[in-house]
Design brief:
heterodimer, A: about 250 residues, alpha/beta, Rossmann fold, OB fold (Dihydrolipoamide Acetyltransferase, E2P), 5-stranded parallel sheet, 5-stranded antiparallel sheet, 15 strands, B: about 350 residues, alpha+beta, Heat Shock Protein 90, 11 helices
Chain lengths: ~250, ~350
Amino acid sequence: MSIRAIIADDEELARHILREYIAHQPDIEIVGECDNGFSAVKAIGDQKPDLLFLDVQMPKLDGFEVLELVDANLAVVFVTAYDQYAMKAFDAAAVDYLLKPFDLARFQTTMDRVRRRLAEPSAAVPAAELRNAALPPGRYAERIVIRDGARVHILPVAQIDYVEAQDDYLAFKSAGKSFLKQQTISSLEESLDPKRFVRVHRSFVVNLERIAKIEAYTKDARIAILSDGSKIPVSRAGYLKLKEAMADQ
Amino acid sequence: MHPLLQNRNTLLAYFAAWLPLGAMLGVVVSGAGHLDWRATLAFIAPLTLLLAFVCLSPWYLCRSLPLNGTPRWKLLTYHSVAAMFASALVLFVAPFLLALLARFRPGIEMQFQPAMRVLAAMCFLFFLLSVALHYVLQALETSRQAEVLSREAELKALKAQVNPHFLFNSLNSISALTNIDPAKAREMCIRLSDFLRNSLRLGERTSIPFGEELALAGTYLDVEQVRFGKRLRVTQDFDKACDACQVPPLLMQPLVENAIKHGVASLTEGGEIALSAHVSGGSLLFSVENPFDPDAPSQRKSGFGLVNVRNRLRARYGNSARLDIAAGQGLYRVNVTVPFIKEAGKE
């Protein structure tokens, strides 16, 4: 059975090299080529490939965002020109990564790894953690990508009111709407700027700009009332973090 | 060389500052000797001039005795001895001057005799005052030099950078072309070499004609054209007169690089980069415009290229250059205005 692969890179010449090298591999079949993040997400959903060659910098969605939006358990090979922070992340999570330009011998090595990886099923790439690891120090997520059926929502972090953890999902609340995404609240907390977002409770992260006031509830617990009137619980530890973050402003 | 002697204006200001000091000297001396203003003026004016020159000398002494790192006693002794020499010099010259004046007004030397001690004390004080002033001058000079040095080092580092993304992606394009179109691969090798060579060469200079900057940006776009193919379109609208204007090197090229990175590369269908340059009212105005994806994360704010260009404009032109950004409706435009300077300037 052949390995079904998708190439996602916005540069035609870069895709060409991969096509050329893949032609030397009898067991690989290219089932899709994409020149932007959206079409990559769609193609992966439609084709359910085994292998993805993924450029990091692409129009519409970057490589990490693409991974966050697909739930297929597939082998990922990052293909990138230069990114010192992303490379560390790749080492930890991707099957392999190729630095442009690369030669056929290097590509063969990658393919050997891919074959080994596909022979023994393993867990999916933890996309959100991978993304966090690739962020340079002091840089934070500027937008959240969420898939809703066939649609993709791009939510700039400034538009988030608060986020609530619900079982395995996070509910992103923005202007009265709610978007569900499979992610852990701690990985979200890590990706957001601590000066703007505070985890005020085990299951809640809040946008500081939205807090109108904080009221006492019980002896240890408080309630934050947001500018749109919604109320979210604030734990004792959360209150301390909140005070600290607000003092910094 | 003494900084006050380097520039006629500062030297004039220095002597102007001595006018009130000379007047003070005159008042004190005439008071002590019960003299009329004419005699005092004739006597004090040349001495003040002499003292003004003598009080420039602490520059050298202050340089060899830095405030930090010289023991207090040494500072005190050296400068006091120097001050004594200074006043001794004035006292030595004074009798000759009096002898000269005595030809016009006999007996004047006797009249000035009681004022000599006051004169000596004043000279001593003025000299010490000048020592203090020189330490202040030196501190200013040191901090200014440190600032210039750090700025130069920073600019050098900024100019020398070639974006690794650009370099590796270009090499990757060449790698692909070797199989598809060897002649084009060779052409791109040459374009890339041209660009690298020229950016190294121009980056080392302080000023270059704007025409060369345009040519550099053009070579850069030639390379990117191969990489992006149909996705990249360029329009140019340049006045020929712009070419001669002297500008710091690598002023426009980083803006063009941004236009690709944050503009054309962020759009699947690519877009058009519009470059323009005009001369108007003693200024050179140029602009770089590109379409962008409004949903893309805004890396502009931390845009290294833009900050770099802005800092370099400020370093070179102070407030007489401007960099404005206009963004809206999917178009991003950077406008730069610099004074039109034709000759090479100080290099």
